[in-house]
Design brief:
Number of domains: 3
Largest sheet: 3 strands, mixed
CATH topology of the largest domain: Tetracycline Repressor, domain 2
Strand content: 5-15%
Strand order of the largest sheet: 1-2-3
Shape: elongated
Radius of gyration: 30 Å
Oligomer: single chain
Structural class: mainly alpha
Distance between the termini: 88 Å
CATH class of the largest domain: Mainly Alpha
Order of helices and strands: HHHHHHHHHHHEHEEHEHEEHHHHHHH
């Protein structure tokens, strides 16, 4: 009955300071729903409600809040409340919070940690940004191959409550090197006196703590796992990453690529919470850069002023031709960026894919050339051949630029998503202008 209370009734409990009743009510709610409820409240009510939660529920709810919401909430908590909250957070969630906050705020939180948590936090923060080491948690259950199944299950019962997950149990030697991972159900269904080594097959997937987080996403998807062991260069088990953390990474990476595809610097917080200044800074840089790139289009056109004056009909098809080249390049770039992001192709596949893209682009270019020829035959037959030839070439060149740019960026260690549609379109525009008027001068015999 208590769990069926609605938001207005919850607010009445908050205002009446009925903390014991509130704890009972919200203890039956999923943490995600409590987090959603907190976000709907005013600032003062939000803090009061959070303070009314039990320590266990508060930590779980806090983990479901976005970074900027966590930051705002921490500012309103006392040092003692913050210390308890940080202590109750899972290590991976605590690391995610500390690495994203401004340096001054991070140092304040580190100063509030007890010695063991501080040592653990500094250890996790010591790994490179965007690495698996920053994402992992050292809370897992490990057993030894010479134990019996009965001993292993007793160990799981003793230490499993503090583990991030016990769906898989990891087998290590005395030097803590990873030997295998076993599903918990295999242990449960086996006879107690059977040795753990009798269940092992030595086949398991793992990831280096220094690997990029996207590598872990690929592995956990490839092997259809819910948890992935993290090891060092010597094969020593350091921690684990779970599928819920990697889903967050995948969403973050997809959002970043989507922003870059629109020539927007990635937002590190909710769009709803972003201020005017932040949105301005994230958008203005690319727009100014694209203005400079497009300036070359104008410069190229001015260079062929005499050609335009001699054959004014050329201007009729100029927007159509350079737009088609840019669109073809944007299509090719989008396909390649996504293929690289998902691991469907690698940075070394460029040469293998070049021939195929050239064939596809040629077929598309020929089709579009015939289409524009039909229009040109009616509107300006004197430039029909120039327009048709240009259409074919700009589509092929634009496609090859769009297809190649992500590979070049990947080779340089830059996110291929930077090869966004607006950037590729702008580059293809400049190229298209040069191709168009060069062909016109040659074919029409102009200087």
């Amino acid at each position: 009955m208590l769990s069926s209370l609605l938001k207005p009734e919850i607010l009445e409990l908050v205002r009446a300071r009925e903390w014991s009743v509130l704890r009972d009510v919200l203890s039956d709610w999923p943490a995600q729903e409590v987090a959603d409820l907190i976000l709907e409240l005013e600032k003062d009510e939000r803090v009061l409600l959070f303070r009314g939660l039990s320590r266990e529920v508060a930590a779980e709810v806090f983990s479901h809040l976005a970074l900027e919401q966590q930051d705002h909430l921490l500012r309103d908590l006392t040092d003692a409340e913050t210390r308890r909250l940080l202590s109750d957070l899972p290590p991976d969630d605590r690391t995610a919070l500390l690495e994203e906050l401004p340096g001054q705020a991070t140092q304040r939180l580190l100063n509030l940690l007890d010695p063991d948590d501080l040592k653990e936090a500094r250890w996790l923060l010591g790994y490179p940004e965007e690495s698996v080491g920053r994402l992992m948690t050292p809370d897992y259950v490990a057993i030894h191959p010479d134990w019996t199944i009965g001993d292993a299950l007793q160990h799981v019962r003793r230490f499993g409550r503090d583990s991030e997950t016990i769906n898989r149990v990891f087998v290590v030697d005395r030097g803590w090197r990873l030997l295998d991972d076993l599903e918990l159900r295999w242990l449960i269904l086996e006879e107690p006196d059977v040795l753990v080594r009798d269940l092992m097959d030595g086949s398991f997937a793992s990831v280096s703590a220094f690997a990029d987080r996207e590598v872990a996403v690929s592995l956990i998807r490839k092997y259809d796992q819910t948890v992935l062991p993290v090891i060092d260069s010597g094969g020593v088990l350091l921690g684990i990453v779970t599928v819920d953390d990697l889903l967050d990474v995948q969403e973050e990476e997809a959002t970043e690529d989507f922003h870059l595809a629109g020539s927007v610097e990635p937002l590190r917080q909710s769009f709803r919470e972003a201020g005017l200044g932040l949105l301005y800074r994230r958008r203005i840089g690319w727009l100014v850069a694209l203005v400079l790139v497009n300036f070359f289009s104008g410069a190229a056109i001015s260079r062929y002023e005499d050609t335009i004056q001699a054959v004014v009909a050329l201007t009729i098809f100029l927007p159509l031709l350079i737009g088609s080249g840019g669109n073809a390049g944007a299509q090719a770039s989008t396909l390649m960026v996504r293929a690289l992001a998902t691991g469907d192709v690698g940075a070394g596949d460029w040469l293998r894919l070049l021939g195929r893209e050239l064939a596809v682009a040629a077929a598309i270019g020929a089709t579009m050339a015939m289409a524009v020829a039909a229009v040109g035959a009616i509107q300006a037959p004197e430039v029909l051949v120039v327009v048709s030839m240009t259409m074919f070439i700009v589509v092929v060149v634009g496609s090859l630029i769009g297809m190649s740019a992500p590979f070049v960026l990947a080779r340089l260690g830059v996110d291929p998503a930077v090869a966004s549609a607006p950037l590729i379109t702008s580059v293809a525009d400049v190229t298209g202008v040069l191709i168009y008027f060069t062909i016109a001068n040659w074919y029409l015999g102009l200087s």
